[in-house]
């Protein structure tokens, strides 16, 4: 055991030493390669907005990551969404508020092809985006015209990347628990969405029977849970516009229970974190 | 180490696997692609390695009785050593695999993964933990030779720093932290108990009642408890800390000694042979001086097969567990036959022999056979067979110097005696 421990220790030192020294010896070439960059305008950048050719501008640099997209751990469509655009925001928010690692930063440098410049050839950095360019892009972007209920970027930014698991959340108002909802997340998709409690002004909706005045409202809520089944988590924001989900929306306009309360209860569950592990 | 599983082992396996099981849904099965596989290996070895490190720390607890869950303190120590060793290997594999997994992205990326900017505290905490491990494990695994026992013990305390640094590495980076809090608390708790609490809480005060010379360089010290005495079984041992001011060495140091008295004896007796500075000084320990005892530990005479006759082979100071058992035999109406072979250099070195012979005279199921090296050379199979024809079918207990144990193991092995039937306690390390 002693000999093995010693051998492993020496082998470890040797391997790390080799890695570091090979890196030190080869790093000169890389700086040469990195200097071969050119100026790229936003217009040119925008031409490379697909999986066939995906360029991104991050903090003033332009990177051709076409070859890397298939290797990125995140879903391809999320990566491709930012192609042809200024993507510093996505880079700095790998998960909300958390930037990519220094290792990833070095890796990114391998894909650098140029620097982002404006029409006059002045450098543009992602940090000091001027408002006019921003406004232009907003107009040009298809997302600009999208309803908040459909804007996936907004949803992802608001929800972060919740872990898979079983969640429970509530919506309370005026001292009354109105919505208590449970749901499971599997790979970012909703399953087993159920109301544990549904009430408004002292009426327990889950005990209502067919023929009761408010029974249709309960049915509409049941529809919500059915509709959410198997959907990506971000679809809960569609409940801001319940008409997308449930045909007869009268019950909602009747100021009893609203989709917004369901969203609120579900986001409460997400804030509380995983209730039990899958 | 016998391959037999003790109930404590199952506990260990569960503790080791919990973090891996909790992380399993995230880790998935090993991927096929090389870099991804290396990354997977890196994460798994990190998780298992840290679990082993923390469980190793928890195993240092040394609670009387707890060690018997693992087949005695010597086996517990062997597990501690084996797990610590495995943790060290796995942690290095963890680093290397995660670094190499990033090589396809460029060497600079791989190097930066292993050596990030100083602001990545969690990662550097991992490196420091590894460094601490190297420092306190180097003498354990004799990287650069051997270290004096007390100094080795002091250096081994760096393991506490390694444990905290390793947690500082894992807690910010791990997906699920509760298993690390749990194992970390067990490991840290064990160390706090062992080093801070047990010296005052677990030690029992005794006074030296007599010191009787048995042979040149061998004494039997009888100890009278100041309060309630320890309860023990034959074959168990205690940690002995003499406080006698007049001792030339080893004052306040703890060393393990086997109990030689019978469990019913109001005095606790230990046979001490002059084998080093501390045991040399004890030959002249003052009568009336204070001694602290911690224990009892060990499970030498565990009930492996109580129905089977026993063969005892004792030599040197290793005769003491058999002395304890023989002295206690009068009280326990043992059904099984016991034959003791006393392997000594010569009659002058066969201490305790008179008393053992007397015990054999009083108990017809107990026989003592002497074998003197100076007259007969090493014990032979024919001698053994002549005096104990059914020796191969007995439960066999060995205790003595390493050379004797090695010789006997080879001898028994050559006769096809299964290793599971041979019981041996070695504590040159405790």
UniProtKB/TrEMBL annotation, chain A:
Organism for this UniProt entry: Halomonas salipaludis
Region annotated Disordered, chain positions: 117-151
Cited PANTHER family: CYTOCHROME B5
Gene Ontology cellular component annotations, sorted alphabetically: membrane
Keyword Amino-acid biosynthesis: no
Bias type Acidic residues, positions: 117-133
This protein's name: Cytochrome b5 heme-binding domain-containing protein
InterPro entries (UniProt xref): Cyt_B5-like_heme/steroid-bd, Cyt_B5-like_heme/steroid_sf, Cytochrome_b5
Key words, A-Z: Heme, Iron, Metal-binding, Signal
The UniProt record lists the keyword Transmembrane: no
Signal peptide per UniProt: 1-24
Superkingdom per UniProt: Bacteria
Molecular function (Gene Ontology), one example: metal ion binding
Family to which the UniProt record says this protein belongs: Belongs to the cytochrome b5 family.
Domain Cytochrome b5 heme-binding residues, every copy: 37-117
UniProtKB/TrEMBL annotation, chain B:
Species for this entry: Halomonas salipaludis
Domain FAD-binding FR-type: residue ranges: 201-303
PANTHER family: 1,2-PHENYLACETYL-COA EPOXIDASE, SUBUNIT E (PTHR47354:SF8), NADH OXIDOREDUCTASE HCR (PTHR47354)
InterPro entries: FAD-bd_8, FAD-bd_FR_type, Fe3_Rdtase_TM_dom, FNR_nucleotide-bd, MRET, OxRdtase_FAD/NAD-bd, Riboflavin_synthase-like_b-brl
GO CC annotations, alphabetized: membrane
Keywords assigned by UniProt, alphabetized: 2Fe-2S, FAD, Flavoprotein, Iron, Iron-sulfur, Membrane, Metal-binding, Oxidoreductase, Transmembrane, Transmembrane helix
Highest taxon above the source species: Bacteria
Membrane-protein topology: Multi-pass membrane protein
The protein's name in its UniProt record: Oxidoreductase
Regions crossing the membrane: 38-61, 82-101, 121-143, 155-174
